Amino acid sequence: MKRLDVTHRTTYRYSEPVAFGPHRMMLRPRDSHEMSLVNATLTTSLPAELTWTYDVFGNVICTAQFDGTTDELSIESHLQVERYAPTELSLFVTGADVAYPLAYSPDELTDLGACLTGSGEPFEPELEAWVQAVTARHAGGAAALLAGLCQEIHAGFTYETRFEESTRSPAETFGLRSGACRDFAAFFIGVARRLGFGARFVSGYLFDPSGGDSGLQGAGATHAWAEVFLPGAGWVEFDPTNGLIASDHLIRVAVTREPHQARPIAGSFVGTPGAFIGLWVGVTVESVESAAEAASVPELVAAPAQAATPPTEAVAA
């Protein structure tokens, strides 16, 4: 078990004081058998009234109604979580890999619904040929095929940091053989659905115990990966950016059908057009050395605080 501290700071800057519309935030994870939320605080530099709800996927949603104007808005989320090592993929109910092609039950097919969009529909010829070659190279069970797909994306595609909010289509990512973690997650999901798997998008954070020397990509910002539903195993995590499978380095915050539904913070401002200067995002994930020193769980609050100094560059998953 790892106990981890996560700090996610977002700062918006404007050329003049502006007011704000409602901001929708997906920053608090839900407890599971793999991860327990020990401590969570949410602080804003401008006073706000918070409303807590769940979305259609069961994610925790916080809506902030801000009071007043400012030329700099800072939102800081601090989490402390306990992350447990996952069960090995081979340890299913049957003690073996899941047979491929999959045979979802009628209930599973209904419940997976849109997570199966594109199932069985071929891609354009070049991408389809690549998918068929990957399938042939990793013939066998479903987990072996998905693990092979994850590793081939990790080894054959180049990671890049992109500041645009959009996510590339599978065809675009394949054509460029490069992308950000959200592009690789969307590409993996598209291929998995093509092969008949129910797959969904995951947004969260990456823990790099080396502090940047391990070669892991995506630390220092929000991170994105995929989950695939396997009968007997449930939802299994695949991070094609780093070649990770069911890893305790992944800290899940939200799951959605498509990437655009998983933005950590979304909102608007009211002011002169062109007043927006920029957005700065910084994420730190650190191990808590002594679990005995961990604080007890407080309620989430939105309290006024001094605006934080932003990181030197914006980073986006």
UniProtKB/TrEMBL annotation:
InterPro entries: Bac_transglu_N, Papain-like_cys_pep_sf, Transglutaminase-like. Signal peptide: none annotated. Residues 173-242 form the Transglutaminase-like domain. Gene3D superfamilies: 3.10.620.30. It holds the Pfam family Bact_transglu_N. It comes from the Bacteria. This is Transglutaminase-like putative cysteine protease. The lineage of its organism: Bacteria, Pseudomonadati, Pseudomonadota, Alphaproteobacteria, Hyphomicrobiales.
